[in-house]
Write a sequence for this structure.
């Protein structure tokens, strides 16, 4: 309503109009909820939680809450795995092909000096296509194959399969997508059995079922694995989204059965879906939290901005906290937020009780010349103003190898202009250390009840 119209309309009439608008929105919301409930009821149900044995704490995997903030739902905890512990809230670096882009990951491994990547995320989709699960298993598993002694987590491959189908892959694959030798890509068929897709490497058809996805992750041998799920794009119609969530629930139940038949000292996280729909997120959280998963991941479309993300977390996290109250004394299940790595979203999500976050965001920024700076800002080192900054390091408050060893902004600017591979490597190392420092600061704030 324009200002002039407001002045012309009596205050009582404006209040009545606003009240009518709110009532109209509530009525529409109620109608939509009823329609969604009808669609959910029409779907083939997933196996009920009663079909599974109750969850029991694992000797090889556990999560302990060390401090619960008095100011919010935030908590400081520690995840214990066969390959070491993970302090939470924590950032998880993404090593797509069992390698951090442009970085020797051993330079960023966790050390006794309380620095380095405690948990690293590898993509089973890419490793399935190259070199293949059998090759990694023959090498002694993913830890030995990539020479890493700290914890690893692998995903199901669902994100890559469906994002390729929707032409929305991350920058990790842009070079392949723009290749002149481009093979036809995309999902060929999605059914109850699984998904059939075409390999971006050689064009061959690949049949991926929930069971095969789990068995592939068993061959890789990561500490934490994730069941196969469907990831529809953000603008999926509500009816199709209901079908997708229902299918994902059935796939996850099948994945869980396969996993429980052969644990191999691996933990599995159940993935909660539903887009930005409160009804579908509630449905998914209630069903998945009822199954004997070792923890949870919040996936699917997480909204267009931090506000929509918080709307999702405001629906899901109370349900997961209630589930924690039903666990044996002293035990909790960790919550992972898939694909979120920007500082604003991390801080906001940590306040709701989310424990870990994965994203290729910091290394991707580094590859494009952007450095994260203390205080939440960033600079682009390719800017000409850095050409003569001979004595200034990236961040005076940073203790990463790049800043502590005195690499100047001028030198880093030169590396990018000369297209030297060392440039992206140094900025990636710096950005990863920034994320470590960020998470350490968040944990400190929670311990002091400031967050």
């Amino acid at each position: 309503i324009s200002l002039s119209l407001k002045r012309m309309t009596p205050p009582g009439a404006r209040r009545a109009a606003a009240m009518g608008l709110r009532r109209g929105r509530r009525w529409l919301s109620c109608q939509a909820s009823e329609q969604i409930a009808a669609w959910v009821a029409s779907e083939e149900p997933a196996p009920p939680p009663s079909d599974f044995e109750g969850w029991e704490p694992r000797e090889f995997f556990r999560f302990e809450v060390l401090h619960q903030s008095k100011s919010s739902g935030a908590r400081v905890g520690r995840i214990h795995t066969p390959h070491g512990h993970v302090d939470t809230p924590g950032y998880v670096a993404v090593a797509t092909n069992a390698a951090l882009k442009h970085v020797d990951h051993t330079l960023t491994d966790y050390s006794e000096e309380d620095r380095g990547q405690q948990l690293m995320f590898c993509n089973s989709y890419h490793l399935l296509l190259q070199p293949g699960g059998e090759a990694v298993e023959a090498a002694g598993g993913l830890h030995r194959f990539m020479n890493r002694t700290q914890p690893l987590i692998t995903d199901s491959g669902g994100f890559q399969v469906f994002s390729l189908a929707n032409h929305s892959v991350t920058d990790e694959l842009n070079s392949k997508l723009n290749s002149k030798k481009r093979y036809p890509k995309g999902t060929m068929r999605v059914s109850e059995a699984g998904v059939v897709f075409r390999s971006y490497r050689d064009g061959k058809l690949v049949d991926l079922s929930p069971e095969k996805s789990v068995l592939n992750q068993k061959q890789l041998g990561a500490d934490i694995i994730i069941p196969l799920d469907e990831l529809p794009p953000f603008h999926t119609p509500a009816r199709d989204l209901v079908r997708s969530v229902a299918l994902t629930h059935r796939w996850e139940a099948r994945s869980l059965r396969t996993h429980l038949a052969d644990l191999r000292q691996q933990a599995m996280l159940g993935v909660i879906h539903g887009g930005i729909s409160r009804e579908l997120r509630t449905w998914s959280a209630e069903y998945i939290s009822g199954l004997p998963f070792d923890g949870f991941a919040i996936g699917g479309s997480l909204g267009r901005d931090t506000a929509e993300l918080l709307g999702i977390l405001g629906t899901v996290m109370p349900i997961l906290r209630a589930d924690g109250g039903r666990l044996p004394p002293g035990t909790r299940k960790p919550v992972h937020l898939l694909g979120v790595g920007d500082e604003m979203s991390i801080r906001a999500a940590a306040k709701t009780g989310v424990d870990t976050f994965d994203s290729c965001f910091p290394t991707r920024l580094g590859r494009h010349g952007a450095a994260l700076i203390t205080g939440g800002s960033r600079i682009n080192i390719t800017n000409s103003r850095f050409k003569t900054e001979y004595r200034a390091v990236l961040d005076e408050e940073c203790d990463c190898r790049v800043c502590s060893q005195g690499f100047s902004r001028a030198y880093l600017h030169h590396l990018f202009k000369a297209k030297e591979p060392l440039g992206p490597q140094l900025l990636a190392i710096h950005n990863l250390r920034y994320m470590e420092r960020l998470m350490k600061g968040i944990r400190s704030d929670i311990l002091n009840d400031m967050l």
Remarks:
- Confidence is low (pLDDT under 50) at residues 1-8, 169-184.
- The longest strand covers residues 62-68.
- Residues 11-42 form the longest helix (32 residues).
